Amino acid sequence: MADAAPPPSKRKRELADAGTAACGTEDKEAMVAGVGNGTSAPAHFPFSGFRVKKVLRESARDKILFLHGKVNEASGDGEDAIVILEKTPFQVEQVAQLLMGSPELQLQFSNDIYSTYHMFPPRQLSGCWFSLTVW
């Protein structure tokens, strides 16, 4: 007897996943953003209404954080949401540009051998802060 075909919604998702797996990271980001030409479009997501219920996974090594929470609770439509926060890899060109400029530094520790700072790069280079140790 022939195998039954999978439900249409499941099959459609499998095809979409297969197509996404074949793409590069930039293509995946474009698909998520809904823009096909590689440019990013502003996205609206109500983080102001996001409430964290649980930290699902946290990895300092992988620089990733998985959160389970609720969105739109104020409107009464409270929906579960999973938010994944991930630090993007460094780009050599941006790091060189950052270190040649004058980033905002906050001294954390200093002795006769080295100093450690928290560095807050300009917004156009990164939305995250970095730890910087100077030997």
Strands, helices and their partners?
Blueprint: H1 8-22, H2 25-33, E1 51-59, E2 64-71, E3 79-86, H3 92-100, E4 104-110, E5 115-120, E6 130-134
Antiparallel strand pairs: 1-2, 2-3, 4-5, 5-6
Protein name: m7GpppX diphosphatase
Subunit structure: Homodimer. Associates with components of the exosome multienzyme ribonuclease complex, such as EXOSC3 and EXOSC4. Interacts with NDOR1.
EC number: 3.6.1.59
Structural write-up:
- By secondary structure, the protein is α+β, with helices and mostly antiparallel strands.
- Among the domains are: 47-87, Phosphorylase Kinase, domain 1 (2-Layer Sandwich), CATH 3.30.200; 92-134, Scavenger mRNA decapping enzyme, N-terminal domain (Phosphorylase Kinase, domain 1, 2-Layer Sandwich).
- It contains three helices and six strands.
- The protein has helices at residues 8-22, 25-33, 92-100, and strands at 51-59, 64-71, 79-86, 104-110, 115-120, 130-134.
- The strands form two sheets. The protein has a three-stranded antiparallel beta sheet with strand order 1-2-3, with no helix packed on it. The chain has a three-stranded antiparallel beta sheet with strand order 4-5-6, with no helix packed on it.
- A hairpin with a 7-residue loop joins β2 and β3.
- The longest helix has 15 residues, at 8-22.
Tags for this model:
135 residues, alpha+beta, Phosphorylase Kinase, domain 1, 3 helices, 6 strands
Reading the helices and strands in chain order gives: HHEEEHEEE
- Oligomer type: single chain
Q: Major sheet: order of its strands?
A: 1-2-3
What can be said about the biggest beta sheet?
Answer: 3 strands, antiparallel
Strand content: 25-35%
Report the principal-axis shape.
elongated
Q: What is Rg?
A: 21 Å
CATH architectural name of the domain at 92-134? 2-Layer Sandwich
Number of strands: 6
Structural class: alpha+beta
Tally of helical segments: 3
Tell me the span between the first and last alpha carbons: 71 Å
Poorly predicted segments:
8-36, 129-135
Name the average pLDDT.
Answer: 68
Name of the CATH homologous superfamily of the domain at 92-134: Scavenger mRNA decapping enzyme, N-terminal domain
CATH topology of the domain at 92-134, anyone?
Phosphorylase Kinase, domain 1
Instruction: Give helix % range.
Output: 10-25%
The first-level CATH class name of the domain at 92-134:
Alpha Beta
